[in-house]
Design a protein that fits this description.
Helix content: 10-25%
Order of helices and strands: EEEHEEHH
Number of helices: 3
Number of strands: 5
Largest sheet: 5 strands, antiparallel
Pfam families: DUF2849
Structural class: alpha+beta
Distance between the termini: 45 Å
Radius of gyration: 14 Å
Protein name: DUF2849 domain-containing protein
Strand content: 25-35%
Number of domains: 1
Strand order of the largest sheet: 3-2-1-4-5
Length: about 100
């Protein structure tokens, strides 16, 4: 018996800036995890990943990341993804300044 599918979001890195981005339900790339489309169907997740991977002039390294529903939108469930929501850790700028994680 196959394991039960866990909800996912599609994430990648913006090609020009390198920022972590998330695919939204209306096909935008957002820098905010809470705006990502929470995908609860495995077939739909694969289709969304293919869609993301086809946008080679916008993003690189698209993949599915585990997530869960939260009060303000999807929330990451793995420490790696939590870390990615905070932005680069080598200096304070961008997301770290915006969210107070400096």
């Amino acid at each position: 018996m196959a394991p039960r599918f866990t909800p996912k979001v599609v994430t990648a890195n913006a090609l020009l800036e390198g920022d972590v981005v998330y695919l939204t339900a209306d096909d935008r790339w957002s820098r905010h995890h809470a705006e990502a489309e929470l995908i609860e169907d495995e077939a739909h997740a694969q289709l969304r990943l293919l869609h993301a991977a086809s946008q080679k002039l916008i993003v690189v390294g698209a993949y599915l990341a585990d997530a869960k529903a939260g009060p303000n939108g999807p929330e990451p469930t793995h420490f790696r993804e939590v870390f990615r929501t905070r932005g680069p850790s080598n200096y304070a700028h961008g997301k770290q300044v915006e969210t107070g994680h400096v």
